[in-house]
Design brief:
alpha+beta, Aspartate Aminotransferase, domain 1, 6 strands, 42% helix, 118 residues, six-stranded antiparallel β-sheet, globular
Length: 118
């Protein structure tokens, strides 16, 4: 099950670097994350829940934390990026800052942990 690794390897530059950086930061923060899919996208999964997906779309790189509350919690740090209820978009040559990616992954991990604790 190498869905994420194979997907990243299939991308051309600069998208490969942009998507790969998000995946690698997420793996560092959540080393227990495994590769899989969610909503038809390659995604890192944690405790049987989707953690994060980063994919190239026609117009940008889309980052999907599978949680509107996580996106909303970071809204103040996302000026200049395309933000929807469930995603954040950016140009490959203008990636999300590392600290924003770190918070995004950490918030989603904590949200999954809280759901599993119930």
């Amino acid at each position: 099950m190498d869905e994420v690794s194979e997907y990243v390897a299939s991308l051309d530059e600069p998208a490969r670097t942009a998507v790969g950086a998000i995946v690698e930061r997420a793996r560092t923060i959540v080393p227990d994350a495994v590769e899989g899919t969610s909503y038809g996208m390659p995604a890192l999964r944690y405790r049987d829940s989707p953690l994060i997906s980063a994919v190239l779309t026609k117009k940008h790189v889309g980052v999907y934390p599978f949680s509107p509350p996580v996106v909303e919690a970071l809204a103040g740090e996302l000026d200049g990026f395309r933000v929807t209820k469930g995603s954040i978009g950016f140009a490959p040559d203008r990636p999300l800052p590392d600290d924003v990616v770190d918070r995004l992954v950490t918030l989603r991990r904590d949200e999954i942990d809280a759901m599993r604790a119930r």
